[in-house]
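To the wet lab folks,

You asked to see what we're planning to order before we commit. Fair enough. Below is the target structure as tokens, and below that is the sequence we designed to fit it. If anything looks off to you, flag it before the synthesis order goes out.
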């Protein structure tokens, strides 16, 4: 399964390259600089937004199923209304549903926060790159 975080695969092998060390070996020397693929950052951020929406859909289904099961258990209990909670299991289902909902809210918040930061980072890199290109174009040299 491929994700926006996966790097390109070449010949089935994976190579790690530090900025100061050439991939083919040899001494340091740097000179490369940092290259950021803002499109991949945006793709990852958008994937997190989609995952956040899917998480909400799953949570809604779990809520419906837990409450339905709780009502079903209580419906067959003696005396009282179905929502009275006379079965301990029914009450535990509701408690677990509340805990689940709390965890889902936390997960959705984290996904949104990470997505926002990826979009912001992408925007900063794009802006900085454009500013640097404008600065480079504005430099005049005696060589033309």
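Sequence we intend to order:
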């Amino acid at each position: 399964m491929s994700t926006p975080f996966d790097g390109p695969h070449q010949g089935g092998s994976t190579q790690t390259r530090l900025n100061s060390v050439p991939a083919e070996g040899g001494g340091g020397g740097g000179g490369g600089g940092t290259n950021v693929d803002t499109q991949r950052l945006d793709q990852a951020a958008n994937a997190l937004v989609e995952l956040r929406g899917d998480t909400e859909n799953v949570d809604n289904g779990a809520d419906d199923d837990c409450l339905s099961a709780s009502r079903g258990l209580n419906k067959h209990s003696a005396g009282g209304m179905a929502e009275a909670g006379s079965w301990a299991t029914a009450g535990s289902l509701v408690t677990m549903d509340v805990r689940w909902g709390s965890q889902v809210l936390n997960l959705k918040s984290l996904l949104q926060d990470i997505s926002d930061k990826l979009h912001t980072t992408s925007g900063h890199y794009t802006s900085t790159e454009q500013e640097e290109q404008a600065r480079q174009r504005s430099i005049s040299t005696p060589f033309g």
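Structural context that might help your review: The chain has a mean pLDDT of 76. The CA atoms of residues 48 and 111 lie 6 Å apart.

Thanks,
Computational group
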